[in-house]
Design goal:
alpha/beta, Aldehyde Dehydrogenase, Chain A, domain 2, 7-stranded mixed β-sheet, binds nicotinamide-adenine-dinucleotide
Amino acid sequence: MAEGTTLHVRCPRSGQVNYQCVAASADDVRAASARLRAQQPTWQQRGAEGRAQIMQQWAESILAHKSALIDALTADTGRTRESELEVYGLAELIKRWCRQAPPLLTDSAPIATSAPNITVSSQYVPYPLVGVISPWNFPLLLALIDAVPALMAGCAVLVKPSEITPRFIEPLRATIQAVAGLADVLEVIVGAAETGQALIANVDSVAFTGSVETGRKVGAAAAAHFIPAFLELGGKDPAIVLPTADLDYASSALLWGSTSNAGQACQSIERIYAHESIYEEFVSRLAAKAARTTLTVEGGPIGPIIAADQVEIIRAHLDDAYAKGAVAQCGGQIEIHDGGAYCRPTVLVNVNHDMLVMREETFGPIMPVMPFATSEEAVQLANDTTYGLSAAVFGAEAEADALARRIDAGAISINDAALTAIIYDGEKTSFKASGLGGSRMGASAIKRFLRTKALIHKHDQRDDTWWYAEAKRGI
Ligand code: NAD
């Protein structure tokens, strides 16, 4: 796609192109950046409480425009339930940062140092302009999950959501325009890779959510422009089911953790390891529940596959698994309904680590289940991956906790699955290729958008300290 060209957007329910919009050119991005930069000092000077007042109004504006937002997100993604969750989740996210941010932004009190008569305090200085680049799987929430703390930190923010799901941008702009002062420091632009590259060239810091492949390009471009990049990338999250697990509970939790948003979530459980002593029973419970979980076209929760390319990835992973001996206990194929591509929750057995479905991110509601004999083996299998986003362990609490500590991933849900989709309080750092940069979760997430300045005060100004000795001697 060339800069400034028309984007043709596909409807996931019908497979038809039914929406068009024009991508921002490099000049558009430059102009937007200049506008935002010019207004950022005023935003910063409002102080945390002043910014929180405006952000609270934005949360109300989002709720006031919820129908238009939900309709656009549903048209972008084909699913309704998660679209509603995105809108309410965003309003909650804003309110939470309005509560949490002000004390975190207060300059620290002076503390004593190793030298007598010298104290140091910290001043937090926002990056003037933060850029956000986001994916299609939760178009609204992931476009703003980093933008909100960056705004609360005092930065201006330029957001470029995915070109695959851009319909929500117009109603989102309406929510921003409705709040005095917000559009001065928050712009949302349309575009694909070229617009993303132009954004990186114009901002002071970039927060990226997307695939590992693109993350590497974003990291390289940020390095070339000498700006920090916070990269939240893909995963191949494992779950371990110990003999002490409650199998009815674990199978329900893992079905949810693997199939919500039709498996199109970074924190989806994509591999399950069940102890050999409970393997058969676990698989039969999981497969029975998965087989009862229906598609949105049948009134159920599983929506269409949103991105056309993802349909081919899921198909390739399934074909590769079947060619290598995997057997589906339920689901098992891509189905076309009214032109939209769907994948039923699929439980696979006879799987191994030679298969793409156990190694690469599938991003579909596929649950390959493999038996293990010892905890050692379970940990080795869980860690046999290039990813390290998150994981889950089910079993007696102390035993599950001990195992969780040995898994190389940034967040481990113990006796539940995919909890990072719901619990934002714990700091986490991605392992391996799943990301780089500070934690997006936890209160310290806001620090990613601030530079810390040390104010080092000397309180006694006599020139008697040792580092003046040479000067005093006249050397
Ligand atoms: P993607 O990497 O294809 O695209 C993400 C964004 O990057 C889009 O806005 C796209 O336009 C932009 N982009 C593409 N090429 C670019 C370039 N060269 N320079 C700058 N920007 C560029 O990802 P996707 O397919 O939209 O999203 C799915 C991926 O996102 C999955 O791998 C998923 O695991 C990951 N993801 C991660 C998290 C997380 O928090 N770790 C959350 C959600 C999704």
